[in-house]
Amino acid sequence: MPTITAFESSPDRGKGHARDMRVRWAFEEVGLAYDVRLVSFAAMKQPAHRALHPFGQIPTYEDGDLALFESGAIVLHIAERHDGLLPRDADARARAIAWMFAALSTMEPPIVELTMAMIFERDKSWYAERLPGLQDRVRVRLGELSHHIGDADWLDGAFSAGDLMMVTVLRRLHTSGLLDEYPEIAAYVARGEARSAFRRAFDAQLAVFTAASRS
Ligand code: GTB
């Protein structure tokens, strides 16, 4: 059974924003059982963990002789080896993978910039001046994505790993208020979150937080 790593105690308090969530969701979509090894922030920086993840982060993936890091690479690996997340048609498969990259390299950077500022820079004197610029950069991408999605359910035909990745990236905007400005995107995220595989993955990561807060 593959084993992934996740936060022993996630700073998001079980909201499913840490990047193990997308890997858990991928496992659930393809119906593959997995184990989770919880790691502390200190343990992530130790040589044993860095042997799996050079940057000392979660998630990692281990299965037999294969060890992987980077959530995108892990989700792609799962999607390539199991039915359910990538179309069989070669061109459609390539497009779904392109959407995974779009989520990670076009959408995620400005979203992370904004949400990190909202968490870590809120008390800075220059926060109020910086915030609108960060929001506008995200708005540009949300507008473009909204135009692409229109009234479609998913990014390119049936639900794929591209949608899985995009929804996990967009979810980080829940507290920003920006999703409300783009009803098509808000509905798209809600569709992703309504999938039973998403719910199982979400509940599994929430159970870690709930157990940690009881002890
Ligand atoms: N590009 C890598 C990937 O996609 O796998 C990025 C991995 C990464 O950023 N991991 C984070 C980590 O291990 C956890 S997910 N951080 C510890 C460290 O770097 O020392 C990022 C994350 C953390 C917390 C919240 N949150 O509280 O809302 C959201 C996202």
Derived from helix and strand composition plus strand pairing, the structural class reads alpha+beta
Ligand inventory reads: S-(P-nitrobenzyl)glutathione
Q: Segments where pLDDT lies below 50 for 5+ residues?
A: none
- Rg over C-alpha atoms, rounded to the nearest angstrom: 17 Å
The tally of structural domains comes to 2
CATH class call of the largest domain: Mainly Alpha
Note the main sheet. 4 strands, mixed
Helix content: 55-70%
Number of helices: 9
**Strand content of the residues, in percent?**
5-15%
CATH domain topology of the largest domain: Glutathione S-transferase Yfyf (Class Pi), Chain A, domain 2
Which second-level CATH architecture of the largest domain applies? Up-down Bundle
End-to-end distance: 28 Å
Order of helices and strands: EHEHHEEHHHHHH
Q: Strand order within the widest sheet?
A: 2-1-3-4
Give a written overview of the molecule.
- With 215 residues, the chain is of the alpha+beta class.
- The protein contains nine helices and four strands.
- It has a four-stranded mixed β-sheet.
- α1 links the parallel β1 (3-7) and β2 (35-39).
- α1 crosses α9 (196-214), α5 packs parallel to α7 and α6 (127-149) crosses α8.
- The chain is globular, with a radius of gyration of 17 Å.
- The two termini are 28 Å apart.
- The mean pLDDT is 97.
- S-(P-nitrobenzyl)glutathione binds at residues 11-12, 17-19, 44, 56-59, 70-72.
